[in-house]
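Box 3.1 A note on notation
Throughout this textbook, protein chains are presented in two layers. The first layer is the amino acid sequence; the second is a token string describing backbone geometry. Keep the layers aligned when reading.
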Amino acid sequence: MVSIREALQIAEDAGLDLIEISPQATPPVCKVLDYGKYKYEAQKRKAEAKKNQKVIEIKELKLRPMIDKHDYDVKVKQAKKFLEEGNKVKFTMRYKGREMNTAELGKAVLDRLMEDLDGLCRMEAEPKMEGKQMMMIVGPAN
């Protein structure tokens, strides 16, 4: 155990900083090191960790209940591409006017989507109505 004065003198003689590591301990634990270098290395470690992490985006595809065959095929193709890239896909089924009375048509289209994307994705959020649109989120199957 070293007094605070002695510790500060040791750090000053070495040209370094006295850093308090654990103030709650009895006696408090301190370390003699170059604080600028320590901060720089911590920043480098943080940047390296950030560089290595995979950012998952949510891509949105908008549909209508009365979607045509070719338009549907294009949406399926886009969804497959997004899922292969590792992104999540949010399908939004929009209803206009009287289409609200036939919400089961939109649900059928979303069910057909899940069948066509079988094996590529897993459902993360079941289809649910929010106002005039129904939403469903799927993620890569990993």
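The beta strands are 17-22, 29-33, 58-63, 88-94, 121-130, 133-140. The longest helix spans residues 35-52.
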